[in-house]
Amino acid sequence: MSAVRPLAVSLGDPAGVGPQVGVSAIAALRETDAFVVFGDGPRLARAFAAAGVPLRTEARVRGDVSVIDVARWSDATIAARAPTPEGGRDQLVALDAAIDVVTRGEARALVTGPVSKAAITSSGVDFVGHTERLAQRAGLDDDGVTMLFLGPRLRVGLVTTHLSVRDAAAAVTEARVHRTIAHVVAACHALGLPRPKVEVTGVNPHAGEGGLFGDEESRAVAPAIRASASLVAELLGPMPAEASFRRAAAGTCDAVVTMLHDQATIASKLLDWGEAVNVTWGLPYVRTSVDHGVAYDAAAAGSADDDGMRAAVTMATRLSPP
Asked: Which domains does the chain have, with CATH numbers?
């Protein structure tokens, strides 16, 4: 079997479901790829042993799993099943170590479990989200990357992410809309759609109703669509968001570019819950993630479902073939 560069896996908050779903998904999918996992080395070694997964010193071929010991998850941190400063430090250390390995080219893609923004912030670090941290660590502006949700029924790109609704509307600019369109089209091409049909939504109800409900559509969205005309895609818009998502659900368009975080995530979680993958497009490497949160209650009950993590691993392999 030929050598491959592994997937780097950061498991997220040790008090949440990340370690559970990460170990479970890797155990189920380990023959499809090689994995290097970051976290509490001794705890992860025991968890993988219990799952029947032998650990290697290095992950070099499909089926190999190795662990990088970067943190000690205390019993108190895990038992809290809530955000803690200690858990915040542990998850950020693991994430940054995984980023370093991918940046050096020692792994070819990054797969991340769910983090707690509250926990990381309580540890003294200004942390808005994975997407922004990844952009920063890559030397990019927040505007240099796009949050995508790629699922079996819906592919959607977000022009704005973690902002208040008031600030998000003001942040919709021609440049940001154009960047998102370009990234969505590129993702569609990577997934085997040579000329995707992409609908671009408005910000306002009814896509502004000809200016009656706002001017973002005429000021930013329509010019960005015109500026994207050279892309190999069929672009439509500005469209009312609810109509675009209805057509996406029916399969009559391939992807949607949307302006606001919850326009995208409500549709994605309704249509593709457990199967959608959060992808950061525009980084110098592939990054995929689950589309759910830390789920402290499920972690405490031991009832976590690993479907989302399996989807994230599968998408990382698909977008970065070994």
From this structure: 1-140+283-322 (3.40.718.10), 143-281 (3.40.718.10)
